[in-house]
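User: My advisor asked me to double-check a structure prediction for UPF0178 protein tinsulaeT_18760 before group meeting. I don't want to rely on an old file, so could you generate it fresh from this sequence?
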Amino acid sequence: MKIWVDADACPVAIKEILFRAADRTQTETTLVANHAMRIPPSKYLHFVRVTAGFDVADNEIVKRCQKDDLVITSDIPLAAEVIEQGATALNPRGELYTKSNIRQRLNMRDFMDTLRSSGVETGGVPPLNQADRQAFANNLDKWLANHPSE
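Assistant: Sure, here is a fresh prediction for UPF0178 protein tinsulaeT_18760 from the sequence you gave:
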C-alpha cells in the first residue's frame, strides 16, 4: 500500500503533513509533478518528474496506482479513475472521494465547467484554512490506521 500525490497543485501545508506521516508510519509516498520539487530526505519519500502536458502527471499516477493505495488529489476525474481501480482518493481539504460520492462530484464539476464556459462568474476555490488542514490530517490518519504499512 502506497500514497501517491498529484503534487503539481498540492498545497505546501498538505505536503508537509504527508512528509511527517510517511516517516511516522513508514509508508512509501510518491509525489508526481511536471516541475522540479524538493522533498525532505527520507527512504519513504520519492519524487517522479513527468514531462509537461495535459494530464501527464495524472496518467502516471493511474498507471502506477494499485488497489488499496491512496491518491491525494483535488482532480475529480483522476479521483474517479483511481477509485475505479480500487484505490482511495482524498482531496487536500480532507474530503474522501468514494464510489458512492464520486459520480455526484463529477456531475457538479461538469456543471460548473458549463457555467464558466458560458460566461457565468463562479468564483474560485477559497484558500486552504486550518479546518481544511485538520480535516485532511484526520482523514489521512484514519486511512493510515486502517492500512498499516508492511
